[in-house]
Structure formats: C-alpha cells, structure tokens
Design brief:
alpha/beta, two-stranded antiparallel ribbon, 14 helices, 37% helix
Length: 434
C-alpha cells in the first residue's frame, strides 16, 4: 500500500541540469512519494526540464492507487490545505471522512474513463500516458476502480481483524505489548518523530492521519483488496504509512527545524514537540505549493504548517484541473509484473538515466538484461529493509551485503557508504558501463 523508505529526489546529486528529456524507471515503489518530491524540486530549481516517470507495479490495485493519488495531487479544484489533508487520509487511513470516501468514488468513475479514453478526463491527459497498457491491464484497472465505486462501509472491520490475527498469530491477545516492543526496538531508534501513540493507533485501528474534529467513519475504498487484485496483494499492518512522508523534510528555515524539536533531552523522557503528522503535512504542502507556484514553500509562524499559505494565498488560484503542470512532466504507467516485456523493445535500450528499485524487487539486479535499459552513469536508488519490521537486524545487514555484492559485480559505485550503526533506507549507486 506504501513504500518503506522516505520520499527521494530522484534527480539529486547532479552536476548540472540538462535540456534533454529525463527518463526515470521506478520498480515497485508502492506509492508516488518520490515522484512528487522529484517533480516539486525540479519545478523550483529547473523548471525547463522534461521528466517522464515509468512506474512498474506487480498489482493492478497498487497501480490504481498511484493513479488516484496523483490525480488528487494535481486536482486544483480543491484549496491546497484541503488537498493535502485529503491526500493523506486516502493514502494512510483505514477509515476516512465521508467527503473523502465520496471523492474516491467520484474520481474512480472519472479514472475509468481515463483508462478507457485517455483524453476524456479534462486536464489529466498531459499527466498520464497510458499508451503502454495492454487491454488486459486496462481491464484490470477498470475492475479495481469499479470495486471502489461499489465499496461499502461494512468491509473494513472484519477484513482488518483477519489481517491482524494472521499477522500476530498466537500473540494476538497480547498485541498491544507487541506493538510497544516493535516501536521501542525498531521505530524509535531511527524515527522517533513517530510518536508511540500514533504508531499504536495505526497498528490497532489502521488510522494514521486524522485532522481536527472530523469524523472518520467510512471505509477507505482504496484499502480494499477484495476484488480482482486481492490475490497476492499484501496489505501492510506492521510498518505503517509514516515513513513515506512523515519522518523528515527539507528544513528550509528555522521554523521547519522546530518541527523536530525535542523536549527533556537527556532525561530518559525525551518527547518530540511535534509529530510525523506535522512533518507529512509540511511535505505534502511543499510539494503541492511547488507544483502550483514554482516556488519553495516556507512556514511563517512557528508550529503552523499551513502559515505560508496565508501569507501567499494570492498566488494560488482555484481553477478545476487547470493543468498548470507543464506537459514536460509526464507519467507513463507500466502495469507489468517484471521489466521483461520492455526488454524486447529497442526503444528502451540505454533509455533511463535514473532508476529506483524497491526492497522487494531487488532480484532484478541479478538480471543482466536490466542493465541494458540504463544509460552509462545512470544513478540507481535501491530501497533497503531498514523500516521492514518483519525482518530482524541480521536479515537487514545480510540484505545490504547482498545488494552491494551484486552491484559490485557490475562495477557499480556506491555514492555514500552506509554507517555501520545506521541502516540507510535508500542506497545510491552509479552504474558505469565499459
């Protein structure tokens, strides 16, 4: 349902911008976090660049969530604050507000039209390029969108309870203690901005992002895997959605730095003043702000994530799906179970300048055909198991060693060594070809 690494700017570590089209391959990223951050930074620093993202996912349900979340991100019919909160609700909550549920159902109908006729949905034809979808893949996506339209409020409780019983097994009756143990041993040492109360609430109920006095009573249609794509599509009940957007951000000024302020340092009772919710709100606000205005977002009042919107509200116009995003930002969605179908297309030989590989897709690094897709000096981003709570430290270290060994065999150069006392969530390599 989401990745287990932070949003990554996939165009980072460049010597200088380029006027050539940039092609980025993402294999099983699980959500659009890195796409959003990359676009936001590009529009602020290098707005003339043309970027195409090719997203490979194993399951139609996950791919459908990509399309919906990106649609919501670019939906300028909503004010920025409302868009930010709705995105996070749909992204990370088992139950959402009635308004958000209705939004999903309404957009599911529109996205069915998008899949069947790319130019039918106003303002979105330049965001999505579905030309590489086979008819069977389109049918699978339409089936997922249709299941969202027919979603009912009764789906949630029983389904989640079954997932939790399967996950905890004979520890189910003592699950609160298991949650606390997982938090203190695996989350707090590396991401203490996630509060225990938040982590426990999500683990037990599926609620990650709740705002104000809103009533979260309606099942999130996008969390249902009961339809076509339910076969083999796993739902995370261990790590949570906080890692993707809520554990760090660009600290552009002192007010942003305050989001990570810790009280009672050195007392054994340290506590962050703010939480991963504020960090996620800031990240999404800054992404949307950059896409809307082409400028970097900054808070103006301590502790008020949305304060920069008030000062600069005249720059943001409400214009339903105005398609302000230039056509150069294109998304080519490739719903296949592996990269093998594109190996046979001559077009994709030495085509990608950047690639992101999720932790559960690293087997592709052993496939020699994969490297034929990459240009010389391609930057490769490999997600690790740092935030996979189902794996122990021994497994995580072995995973890192195996990835490094495989890539050393193809003469890849690691850009930053992982500290022995800290397992990075994304490793970066340069692929140098002879």
């Amino acid at each position: 349902m989401w990745g287990i690494s932070q949003a990554t700017d996939l165009l980072s570590n460049r010597h200088e911008p380029t006027n050539d089209e940039i092609n980025i391959l993402l294999i099983c990223p699980r959500d659009p976090r890195s796409i959003l951050k990359t676009i936001a930074n590009a529009l602020v620093h290098n707005p003339s660049e043309r970027i195409r993202f090719y997203v490979v996912e194993e399951h139609a349900h996950v791919l459908a969530r990509h399309v919906l979340l990106l649609h919501a991100f670019f939906d300028e019919s909503m004010p920025v604050r409302q868009r930010v909160q709705m995105y996070l609700e749909i992204f990370g909550n088992e139950k959402v507000t009635e308004k958000s549920a209705n939004y999903v159902k309404e957009k599911a109908r529109h996205l069915m039209d998008l899949v069947l006729d790319e130019k039918h949905v106003e303002g979105m034809e330049d965001v999505f390029d579905l030309s590489l979808l086979k008819q069977r893949d389109r049918d699978d996506l339409v089936s997922v969108f249709e299941s969202w339209r027919r979603s009912t409020t009764s789906e949630s409780n029983d389904a989640r309870d079954k997932l939790l019983r399967r996950f905890y097994g004979n520890r189910y009756d003592s699950r609160i203690g298991v949650v606390d143990w997982d938090y203190h041993t695996s989350i707090k040492p590396v991401a203490s901005i996630i509060h225990l109360r938040q982590f426990r609430e999500w683990r037990l109920t599926g609620q990650a992002f709740e705002f104000g006095a809103a009533a979260y009573t309606v099942h999130n249609p996008t969390h249902s895997v009961s339809g076509l794509d339910g076969k083999g599509c796993s739902v995370d009940v261990s790590t949570g959605p906080f890692v993707s957007l809520g554990i760090d951000c660009e600290r552009s000024n002192g007010l942003t730095e305050e989001l990570f302020q810790v009280h009672n340092k050195g007392t054994g009772a340290e506590q962050h003043r703010y939480s991963s919710i504020e960090v996620a709100l800031f990240n999404m606000t800054s992404f949307i702000w950059a896409v809307t205005t082409g400028e970097k977002y900054e808070m103006t009042i301590s502790g008020d994530v949305f304060s920069g919107l008030v000062k600069n509200e005249s720059k943001v116009e409400i214009n339903p799906l105005s398609n302000k995003t230039p056509k150069r930002q294109m998304f080519c969605i490739i719903p296949v179970k592996s990269c093998k179908p594109i190996y046979r297309k001559q077009k994709f030989n030495h085509y990608f300048q950047r690639a992101f590989i999720a932790h559960n897709a690293t087997s592709i690094l052993k496939d020699e055909h994969f490297y034929d897709l990459l240009e010389n000096n391609t930057k490769l981003f490999v997600e690790t198991c740092r935030f996979d709570l189902t794996k122990n430290e021994s497994y995580k270290k072995e995973f890192l060693a195996n990835v490094r060994q495989v890539l050393s065999n193809v003469k890849a150069v690691e850009m930053a060594e992982t500290n022995d006392n800290k397992i990075d969530d994304v490793l970066q390599f340069t692929i140098t070809k002879p």
